[in-house]
Write a structure and sequence with these properties.
Blueprint (H helix, E strand, L loop, with lengths): L2 H13 L4 E10 L11 E2 L1 E14 L5 E5 L4 E5 L10 H15 L7 E7 L9 H16 L6 H15 L7 H8 L4 E6 L5 E5 L5 E11 L3 H22 L11 H6 L6 H26 L2 H18 L5 H12 L4 E4 L5 E9 H19 L4 E5 L6 E3 L2
Parallel strand pairs: 4-6
Antiparallel strand pairs: 1-3, 1-13, 2-7, 3-6, 4-5, 7-8, 9-11, 9-12, 10-11
Helix pairs in contact: 2-3, 2-4, 3-4, 3-5, 4-5, 6-8, 8-9, 10-11
The structure holds adenosine-5'-diphosphate (ADP) and magnesium ion (MG).
């Protein structure tokens, strides 16, 4: 049965009324990896996998929430001490609390919701959940909160109620996402711009290695430190450099002898990546998806060889993509596991997927998961 129907039935059974439907989306990031904390660009878009929630104000001071996917019902109040036990409910609770903290009105409501973003695959199911409710509360209680603030409500929910110290990209993409557009976000100024993404004749598909190597968080901190070291060194010659992303390639060259070789390589990747985002934006304005693809391969190379955050499984998938003449392929997300994102011509798609499954399974003993995605709308109310 269709997700909306299931939600409607459950909602009617539990609450004996009808609510309004709200939705939001997971996201991909086409290019711009490990650039956020360097003050550079990211380039995400919302996808056609997300959360769908039916919600009705109930005239009490309690939230009644049912998660179809967890088959669990939870009730909670709106004060700090009412924090629910269930992790999924903490996202809903956190969004309510963060709205209240910003002076927004929130009263009791009934909800049933479900989703189809794979959990923990790097497509940000949690941001989809947060932005659905942040958007819905703003709409239902007429808070007139601006969209950036809705994204920040989601981010603060992660920080304060879910123990995840994330940046703003996921919630930003989930709130601002628009069908057929990617959004370039400048992580330093928070300025953003939409670019057309409508790759006719190509498909966008993620291959999930289903591995997560332990190294991720210590390596992440080390990479940040390396980037700061190099930015500090460059700043001595160029005081205008606030973040590494402000530096030109030639300025990096000036400090080659001053910084450890490893830090140099990390910085070389970051400075290259910032430029690649700009090149991809130019290419998209021309509708040149071959250049987009080539940049994706360059990013993969940089993440694998210079930034050293790839792993055997992801390099393997990237290699299969090259051999199958896939237009672009790269590891997406922080690295050390997760997915590759692939831009594939229609006619090569089936062959690529079959080959990747067969060869990856042969090598690693399990199949990668396959998620085809389309760039779609972010947080919204459904009026039908
Ligand atoms: P991701 O990378 O997908 O965002 P997270 O670990 O950050 O992974 O978030 C996953 C969590 O978000 C789940 O454990 C659950 O608590 C919540 N969540 C996501 N999607 C759903 C859903 N469809 N139903 C209920 N909770 C969900
Ligand atoms: Mg998440």
């Amino acid at each position: 049965m269709e997700m909306k129907k299931k939600i409607q039935e459950k909602f009617k059974t539990l609450y004996n009324c009808e609510g309004t439907f709200f939705a939001s989306a997971g996201r991909i990031n086409l290019i711009g990896e490990h650039t956020d904390y360097n003050g550079g660009y990211v380039f995400p878009g919302a996808i056609d996998k997300g959360i769908l929630a039916e919600i009705a104000v109930n005239g009490t001071d309690k939230i009644h929430a049912y998660s179809l996917d967890y088959d669990e019902y939870v009730e909670f109040g709106l004060n700090e001490e009412d924090k629910p036990e269930q992790s999924w409910a903490r996202y809903v609770f956190g969004v309510c609390r963060e709205t209240v903290k910003r002076g927004g009105k929130v009263e009791g409501f009934d909800t049933v919701f479900a989703g189809d973003v794979p959990l923990g695959a790097g497509l940000s199911s949690s941001a989809a959940l947060e932005s659905t409710f942040a958007f819905a509360l703003n709409y239902l209680f007429r808070n007139k909160t601006d969209k950036f603030e809705l994204a920040k409500i989601g981010q603060a929910t992660e920080h304060n109620y879910c123990g995840v110290n994330c940046g703003i990209m996921d919630q930003f993409a989930s709130v601002f996402g628009k069908k057929g557009s990617l959004i370039r976000l400048d992580c330093k100024t928070l300025e953003y711009k939409y670019f057309p993404f409508d790759p006719k004749g190509y498909r966008l598909v993620l291959l999930d290695s289903c591995v997560k190597h332990e190294l991720a968080s210590s390596a992440y901190n080390k990479r940040r430190k390396s980037c700061e070291n190099v930015a500090d060194a460059i700043r001595k010659n160029h005081p205008e450099v606030e973040f590494l992303s402000d530096a030109k390639r030639v300025w990096l060259e000036e400090v080659r002898e001053e910084v450890p070789q490893e830090d140099f390589l990390r910085a070389e990747y970051v400075i290259g990546e910032v430029q690649r985002v700009l090149d991809v934006c130019d290419a998209l304005e021309r509708g040149d998806y071959e250049t987009v693809g080539e940049m994706m391969y360059q990013t993969h190379f940089g993440l694998s060889r210079l930034y050293e955050v790839s792993c055997e499984e992801l390099d393997f998938l990237n290699n299969v993509a090259r051999r199958c003449d896939v237009t672009g392929s790269r590891v997406m997300g922080g690295g050390f596991g997760g997915c590759t994102l692939n831009l594939v011509k229609d006619e090569l798609y089936d062959h690529f997927i079959e080959t990747a499954i067969k060869e990856f399974t042969g090598q690693f003993g399990h199949a990668p998961k396959v998620y085809e995605v389309h760039i779609s709308d972010g947080a919204r109310v459904l009026n039908d």
